[in-house]
Amino acid sequence: MTTVRYQCRACGNLTRFDVVISRRTKVFYHYSVGGELTIEDEEILFEEVEEVSCRWCGNGGMVDQVEEGGLASSAPPVPEPSPERA
Ligand SMILES: [Zn+2]
């Protein structure tokens, strides 16, 4: 299973998107004797991403779907936090 990622071509955003999804799910409603509901075993029957827009610049038409690992490397990698020195 590949992870879907998005990238805004307008501003380079990789991390903040407004996503509209239609999703039909089947779930197991598990009630306790006291009537408290726990929802278990959610199964996605249908899922469709309808709209993805950039949270930064609000551009809905410039967002590309990219495969994990196939990201354009224009954004510099996040530096790893270095241990604090005394
Ligand atoms: Zn953007």
Describe the structure.
This protein is mainly beta. The protein is built from no helices and 4 strands. A hairpin with a 5-residue loop joins β2 and β3. The chain is extended and about 50 Å long. The mean pLDDT is 86.
What does the secondary structure layout of this molecule look like, with pairings?
Layout: E1 4-8, E2 17-31, E3 37-54, E4 63-67
Antiparallel strand pairs: 1-4, 2-3
The structure holds zinc ion (ZN).
Zinc ion binds next to loops.
Which short descriptors sum up this protein?
single chain; 86 residues; mainly beta; two-stranded antiparallel sheet; 4 strands; extended; binds zinc ion
| Terminal-residue CA separation | 44 Å
* Low-pLDDT segments, ≥5 res: none
User: Can you write the helix and strand succession as a string?
Assistant: EEEE
State the helix count. 0
Shape: extended
Instruction: Count up the domains.
Output: 1
Question: How many beta-strand segments?
Answer: 4
Please summarize what this structure is.
The chain is mostly beta strands. It is 0% helix and 50% strand. The structure holds zinc ion.
